[in-house]
Amino acid sequence: MKQRVEINARGETVSFMLVGRFEQQRTRLAALLATGQPIMLLEYDGEQLEQQVKIPVQLPVEDILAMIQFAEWPEAALRQQYGRGAGWSLSLEAKRRQLWHHGALILDLTFSGEHIQVTHYPNSYDVSITTIERKDLQQ
Q: What pTM does this model have?
């Protein structure tokens, strides 16, 4: 998957390309500048998050991974991951997804075609994600 990501926080904007590969047991992401130069590489196996920073840029890497997963994962996987036992609750609609923790709204995602608009309330930033290319991996 290839996505254009723009993060707006406190009047500053950071834009980059995100190239991701999502497999059943592993997620790999690479953030790239417009020139193709890697900013960071990230790999997550469901338990451990490994990241390599290539250029020192302040990116909320763990938040970006969580937002992409919350946007892309099927409803059943989200319900399993965010079970009610830990204070999480979900609102999952066709064009909107919301994640709550102990009654506080954490993430609010709206979908319009290949565009996702995300508001991350705890850290007060907005993220715009536009999918440019999507390929299903063969099993």
A: 0.74
